Predict the 3D structure of the following.
Amino acid sequence: MTRPQFIHLIVLVATGLALSPAPSYAQNGQPYWASTGPVNANIFFQTLVFDDGFGDGLYLLALNPGGGGGTYQSIFRWRSGMWEVIANRDERGLSLYTNLTHMVVLELDGTKALYLVGVDEVRWHDPAVVNGIAGVAFVCWTKRWTGATWVPGPPGFAVGNPDEPYPRRWPVMSLDLGDGPRVYGMLAETPYSSNFQVARWTGGNWEVIGAASGGHSVVTLIPFDDGHGLSLYAFGDFTAMNGISARGFARWDGQQWHAPYPGLVTRQSSDFNCVTFDDGSGPALYCANGGGWINGQEPGFLNKWDGQTWSIIPSIIVPPKTLTTINGIAVFDDGRAPALYITGGWGNVQGVAASGIARFDGTTWEPLGAGIPYPQHGPRPNSLQVMHDPRRGPSLFVGATRAGGGIVPKYAQWVGSPNCYADCDLDRVLTVADFVCFIGMFAAQDPYANCTVDATIDVADFVCYQTRFAAGCGP
Ligand SMILES: [Ca+2]
Ligand SMILES: [Ca+2]
């Protein structure tokens, strides 16, 4: 059948169905892939989800190829199906020579807000002005997003050295350990040291609460309730914290440090990343990419800390002679139950063919349809985030250029249940316009058109869409 014949057929079917009642988005629907639409971002440095008072948005710190040939960093926001730039180096009060180092959501002075940490490069005509460094000095700053614009954060919140283009003290997270929300951060031991300590914001300054010793540095701060109540876990390459023997990680309960377990010796990479997931046996930390040793053996790509002991979760199988890692880890409920999701450049998880992304329910791994092809063109899949999309439903987002058998400009969306797949134009009624929309998606090879959620977008997807439309989305 040719494409015009197809169009003729489906228009007939659609008009025959006439207008259906408003579809319900509260019923179970099979998860499916979609695209978030074009975004002019090249390299994703960081993503997070935040509600600035106008609904959840997906925030992306990425390289913007720009229009005039120059590249620079921008903050992009995706909301209501649209990408928008909310910060450029030369817009919204940010200066020309600016490095955006990271975004962080903090609760400060009773208000939860998105903060941006950055470094301005200040050019000097007189090399003698700043420490004798020829012509350049760096100034760290934080800015707070009001929902409409960026305003300066507290003085001293992010501090650096004039000759280094990155902060030496900066905020990492807010946490309420029973004494109200407090901001925790990292602080260099001495001005030019690469050993970092755990700090707490007093309102006007940073105080050191965790001095790592025995060699090296705190690398990552992670909140976790291991059964003692919510605590702050510090991971790093150290053997003692505030004089308490703690190898590789230590727990801060708001008052003092504890050594949870003596057997971990870590040397975390910068992409060391943990989430809390309950596989039915209680909440545990699942950590991706820990380097070093656990219980005297080399850790896997995915390691579990249950508050008592470490164990290795068998996960990705790396093709020989390739360097890969888990590039993203998240907990998402696709309608069945919360499960652990990982993404990265691989094709197989524990014998299960799952390309680039996989779901783990605590026992078994499974693919997300055709997943993300491995190897994929462009960067490896990354930047896993979970957000409720009011238009489509509960969603898992992942940076990719192809997903679910279709083409994705940069960022793909795996839509969980409940959803109303047949409502292609998302206007909450099923009409012939949804067929027209589907044809457009099909022509664009948007993964949404892969109704059968297999590896290809083809004739079977037209038939599938027709069936899904006819079934409707219930009252
Ligand atoms: Ca519709
Ligand atoms: Ca298909």
